[in-house]
């Protein structure tokens, strides 16, 4: 009997199961229909990609002081470069722009530790960011005290305004949304129906009507003579609108917590609020973080609608300020492509982050 | 605590600790709070409106509007009432919603299936389409189609044309419009009869299959009943339908139907944006049907086609329908962005022009919001009914 005393080295796979040619054959040319589809796709790419690259890069003009410097054959990025500051800050005075930069830099620096798993006392830091920081940021950006020149909100604009609206929108909608979600799950019939009505009302109407309502009707609701800032009115509408969506996301998390957790909390003798804040919500909110990020993405895209009520967010600046400049007429395409690219970067980045988070957080409930 | 120390039988807790009374107390508090808030707002509003001289009530609906509307499905002129502007706006909103839902569903299904294609190139192209269009705000897309693409169309004289009956130029799209002659009504009746007959035939075929196991070519028979029967009647009555083709006259087109560029831009942007979301829903729905189902279907002798039609799609639909409902609702609500480019939908006409002219903000905003709430409610009731019909029937 022959028994081998050494292990044979692994052989390479047969040449007809590996390699780029086989890959092409399997993925692109496996059947007549597949070949047809490949040809169609290649034709589509040929039709779209070369002209786009030609326009955006090869024929583009990057540096020019006036519109005459642009050849018009390709994109005129010099137009965006010249007005770049305005698309970021709106009409915010140039000498004071460091205040905006400081506020956003502070926010980023404060947020970095939240992503480090082993950082101590994250709860306190989060509380500081949510409760104290907004006041600091407001004093910095709005000014009017501590020797800072006041910059009224009608001068705010551009990407800065987009970010301010969406960040404040989600931060203030979160607590309201949590209360509404708890209300909707309540056993008290009146609390429950009030929450359901509130949520379904705001979810049933488009944001534009909400913005119209807050800009036209809110002044009527207030006592006579009280004047309201335009941005603040829009913010109130956005927060109420957004809280309904946050409430539905949070409710999903509350429903995913097993009933045993509720019963155990009650059996421990915890009161309703204690059992919610110490047992249920920490688990539920962890589950819905990806959902909340998705809600934030939707809100971020929706902030563009404020241009309809006359605020100048990033798209508002591109559409109504840059677009109306007689020195640079005829470059709408570049403006929209630029705005679309900025929004796309933010939204795509956040959606990837949300997906990664979902995978990371999913482990706790997998068995 | 004290009650338990006295004996083993728990006594009644004090009234402030009794959950029943506590619930009652908090709810009464909530009602009072809400009531006070409402009274405060209503009082303020009434005082403000009086101070500004804004009249109240719905009498303005019967007044002459005095402005024209770009597109109207019912006869409308500047002499029509404000009430009529509401109707026109509402119909335009319904039109864009219906067209958008149809187009977005078709496109979304194609892209969603393409993303699952075995062809690497097609799958990647579908992914790029989805990731591009759902991460760019809808408003930018609408502006892009309206101000960039449709503005770049040639003038009427150099219109792009298909078969000399469809024309696209800077003023919009011109398509042939059907003109029905005498006796076309019979074709319509035949069409309705065909649909009813197809339903009866399907039920009969199903009962027969349950009883005897014999199959009946339902699909082809239904096709014949729904399209063949009207076609037969149409030919027999002497083809009473002609097409009114758009013809280029000196400056513009005459005849046919004009689709205004506002509608076109809004429709393209809405359909593409929603299709990107629907594609993801379709993909996840198909992936949710486990491969074991397909293997089981093939092993009991179903053809791949039958497997798709009888096993995979019915199960995927269950996963797809609920999120699809919310996409349809989103589309209906997003159609209000029409106001940004001036498509005369209800927000643009009624909440825009009519509100500016009459100043009756409370009534107009309430009416507009009621329209959207009704629309949302109708779509979700219909989809819930459909969902209940398709849902898993458990024993």
Automatic annotation (TrEMBL), chain A:
GO terms for molecular function: transmembrane transporter activity. The keyword Nucleotide-binding does not apply. InterPro entries: AA_ABC_transptr_permease_3TM, ArtM/GltK/GlnP/TcyL/YhdX-like, MetI-like, MetI-like_sf. The keyword Transport applies. Belongs to the binding-protein-dependent transport system permease family. HisMQ subfamily. NCBIfam families: HEQRo_perm_3TM (TIGR01726). This is Amino acid ABC transporter permease. It comes from Leucothrix pacifica.
TrEMBL record, chain B:
Keywords: Amino-acid transport, Cell membrane, Membrane, Transmembrane, Transmembrane helix, Transport. It is a multi-pass membrane protein. GO terms for molecular function: transmembrane transporter activity. One of its GO terms (cellular component) is ATP-binding cassette (ABC) transporter complex. It holds the Pfam family BPD_transp_1. It is found in: Cell inner membrane; Cell membrane. SUPFAM superfamilies: MetI-like (SSF161098). PROSITE patterns: ABC_TM1. The chain crosses the membrane at residues 21-42, 86-113, 125-148, 183-205, 217-243, 263-282, 364-386. Gene3D superfamilies: MetI-like. Residues 90-383 form the ABC transmembrane type-1 domain. One of its GO terms (biological process) is amino acid transport. CDD domains: TM_PBP2. Belongs to the binding-protein-dependent transport system permease family. HisMQ subfamily. This is Amino acid ABC transporter permease.
């Amino acid at each position: 009997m022959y028994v081998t005393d050494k292990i044979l080295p692994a052989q390479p796979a047969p040449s007809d199961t590996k390699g780029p040619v086989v890959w092409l054959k399997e993925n692109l040319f496996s059947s007549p229909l597949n070949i047809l589809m490949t040809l169609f796709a290649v034709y589509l790419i040929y039709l779209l990609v070369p002209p786009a690259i030609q326009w955006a890069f090869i024929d583009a003009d990057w540096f020019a002081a006036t519109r005459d410097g642009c050849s018009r054959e390709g994109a005129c990025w010099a137009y965006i470069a010249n007005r770049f500051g305005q698309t970021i800050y709106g009409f915010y005075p140039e000498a004071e722009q460091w205040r905006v930069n400081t506020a956003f830099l502070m926010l980023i620096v404060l947020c970095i530790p939240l992503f480090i798993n082993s950082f101590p006392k994250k709860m306190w830091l989060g509380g500081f960011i949510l409760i104290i920081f907004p006041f600091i940021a407001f004093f910095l950006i709005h000014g009017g005290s501590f020797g800072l020149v006041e910059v009224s909100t009608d001068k705010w604009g551009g990407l800065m305004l987009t970010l301010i609206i969406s960040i404040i929108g989600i931060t203030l909608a979160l607590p309201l949304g949590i209360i509404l979600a708890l209300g909707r799950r309540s056993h008290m019939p009146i609390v429950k129906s009030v929450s359901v009505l509130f949520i379904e009302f705001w979810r049933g109407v488009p944001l534009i009507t909400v913005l119209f309502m807050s800009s036209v009707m809110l002044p009527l609701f207030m006592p006579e003579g009280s004047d309201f800032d335009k941005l603040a009115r829009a913010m109130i509408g956005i927060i109420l609108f957004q809280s309904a969506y946050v409430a539905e996301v949070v409710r999903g998390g509350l429903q995913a917590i097993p009933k045993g957790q509720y019963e155990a909390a009650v059996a421990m003798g915890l009161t309703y609020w204690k059992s919610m804040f110490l047992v249920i919500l920490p688990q539920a909110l962890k589950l819905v973080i990806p959902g909340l990020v998705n809600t934030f993405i939707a809100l971020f895209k929706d902030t563009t609608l404020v241009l309809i009520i006359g605020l100048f967010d990033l798209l508002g600046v591109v559409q109504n300020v840059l677009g109306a400049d007689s020195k640079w007429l005829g470059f709408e395409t570049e403006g929209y492509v630029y705005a679309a690219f900025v929004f796309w970067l933010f939204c795509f980045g956040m959606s990837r982050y949300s997906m990664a988070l979902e995978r990371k957080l999913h482990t706790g409930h997998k068995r | 605590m004290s009650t338990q120390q006295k004996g083993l039988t728990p006594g009644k807790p004090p009234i402030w600790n009794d959950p029943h009374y506590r619930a009652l107390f908090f709810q009464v508090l909530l009602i009072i709070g809400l009531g006070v808030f409402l009274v405060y707002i209503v009082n303020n509003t009434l005082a403000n409106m009086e101070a500004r001289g804004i009249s109240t009530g719905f009498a303005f609906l019967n007044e002459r509007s005095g402005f024209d509307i770009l597109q109207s499905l019912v006869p409308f002129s500047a002499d029509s009432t404000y009430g009529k502007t509401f109707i026109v706006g509402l119909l335009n909103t319904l039109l864009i919603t219906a067209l958008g839902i149809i187009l977005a569903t078709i496109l979304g299904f194609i892209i969603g299936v393409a993303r699952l294609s075995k062809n690497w190139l097609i799958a990647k192209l579908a992914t790029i389409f989805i990731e591009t269009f759902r991460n760019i705000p809808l408003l930018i897309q609408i502006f892009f189609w309206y101000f960039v693409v449709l503005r770049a169309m040639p003038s009427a004289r150099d219109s792009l044309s298909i078969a000399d009956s469809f024309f696209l130029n800077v003023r919009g799209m011109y398509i042939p419009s059907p003109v029905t002659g005498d006796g076309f009504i019979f074709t319509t009746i035949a069409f309705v009869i065909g649909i009813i007959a197809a339903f009866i035939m399907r039920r009969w075929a199903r009962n027969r299959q349950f009883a005897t196991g014999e199959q009946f070519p339902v699909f082809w028979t239904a096709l014949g009943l729904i399209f063949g029967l009207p076609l037969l009647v149409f030919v027999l009555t002497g083809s009473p339908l002609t097409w009114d083709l758009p013809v280029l006259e000196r400056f513009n087109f005459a005849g046919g139907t004009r689709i205004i560029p506002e509608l076109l831009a809004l429709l393209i942007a809405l359909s593409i944006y929603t299709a990107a979301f629907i594609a993801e829903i379709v993909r996840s729905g198909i992936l949710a049907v486990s491969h074991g189902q397909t293997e089981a279907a093939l092993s009991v002798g179903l053809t791949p086609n039958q497997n798709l039609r009888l096993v995979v799609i019915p199960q995927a639909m269950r996963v797809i329908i609920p999120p699809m409902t919310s996409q349809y609702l989103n589309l209906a609500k997003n159609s209000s962005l029409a106001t940004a480019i001036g498509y005369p939908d209800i927000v643009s006409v009624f909440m825009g022009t009519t509100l500016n002219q009459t100043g009756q903000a409370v009534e107009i905003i309430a009416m507009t919001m009621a329209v959207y709430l009704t629309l949302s409610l109708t779509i979700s009731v219909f989809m819930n009914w459909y969902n209940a019909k398709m849902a898993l029937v458990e024993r």
